[in-house]
Amino acid sequence: MFFKRVPQVPAREWETWVQENDAVVLDVREPNEWAMGSLKGSQKVQLARLPSALGSLDTGRPILVVCRSGNRSQHAARFLADQGFESVANLTGGLRALGMAV
To answer: What are the b/e assignments for 7-33, b being 16+ CB within 10 Å?
Structure first.
């Protein structure tokens, strides 16, 4: 299986990237992790439910995918890119890189 490469957005640049690209932040963690905090305004879809939630995502806007460490979000971003989403990026190091206790 071939996975497309997705851009990596460093933690210190995430807000700028989201603003400059009018992007959606997609949090692919689990509900118990969301309860510990998330980025303001983020859309929440568990990684396991992402395939069935594709129709709820705005294909016309860039997406910055986030998780705790950057691993699940990397998989999710590649999946979205393979599904035809044109502008998808991963938050390098995840929310931990932002200093969030998640």
So the answer is: eebebeebeebbeeeebbbbbbbeeeb
